[in-house]
Amino acid sequence: MLILLTDCLMQFDVGFSVLGYLTLRTILATLTALLMAILIGPKMILWLQKLQIGQTVRDDGPESHLQKMGTPTMGGVLILAAILTSVLLWADLSNEYVSVTLTVVIGYGIVGFVDDYRKVVRKDAKGLIARWKYFWQSIIALVVADYLYVTAAATEQTALFVLFFKDVMPQLGVLYILIVYLTVVGSSNAVNLTDGLDGLASGVTIIVTITYAFIAFEFGAVQLAIFAAAIAGACLGFSWFNSHPAQVFMGDTGSLALGGALAAIAVLTRT
Fold first, then answer.
1. Roughly how many angstroms between the first and final C-alpha of the chain, as a whole number?
2. Phi, psi of 194 (to 5 degrees)
């Protein structure tokens, strides 16, 4: 969004061209997401508390988790708000990589939100029935995988890059769809499983997204680097409230979306 504004401002002063520098936009994407998460975090936590949206702990879990009962959940809404705001401001929305990653983040965020809603409103610790959750995760992943396969402009985009072997690059063909599907669904559920301890999922995601940002720069996928930087900033801001003792949990709204985003960036960086 600010790219268009920058082009207009440059007509008055060329100094505004600095906003077009990709490295600066990556840094600003991180800071924007970080500051937004920290600024709106207290108000959102208070709002969740007033709505009595509290964590429902499974009765078959460890006793140490019972003390988490009543802690506001659905904090993933805070993460998504920070990420989307930062990406909309600093990334090129016309870029295909950004559009695909946004689709995954929003789609998986909606699935997670429905799951959290069932938990906090119906007080059902199991949330969305597993088969339906997996069904919608699969639909989103397959749509993305099919789109990337159909729109692939070069054979390298659907090939498998073998680590440490530059000349080994087998063509996957239709199997590319299966690989992308398994990556997206698997990564999403992996982050969801990681979200069990205060600050664990957000902390791990920060490390991974910072690494992905550097990798994306290395392979020329700069818009993905901006996206990854925004995720890192949002998770860093969320960690302020999620560190022990946690004031809020991200819930499936955050964990499913973050896992899907990591998978999308990983797949797109090599296409």
1. 25
2. -70, -25
Considering only 64-68, 190-194, 232-236, which range has the smallest mean pLDDT? 64-68
Asked if 124 and 37 touch (Cβ cutoff 8 Å), the reply is: no
Predicted TM-score of the model (pTM): 0.88
| E-strand stretches of the chain | none
Paired tokens of 8: 């207009």
Q: How far apart are CA 2 and CA 27, in angstroms?
A: 14
Six-digit token string for 242 = 């999620």
pLDDT tens, residue by residue, 4-48? 556 665 555 555 566 667 888 899 999 999 999 999 999 998 888
| Residues paired with residue 171 on neighbouring β-strands, in sequence order | 159
* Cα–Cα dist 56/43, whole Å: 21
243 and 120 in contact (C-beta within 8 Å)? Answer: no
Residues of 159-189 as b/e, b for ≥16 C-beta within 10 angstroms? beeeeeeeeeeeebeeebbeebbebbbebbb
Residue holding tokens 């610790």?
125
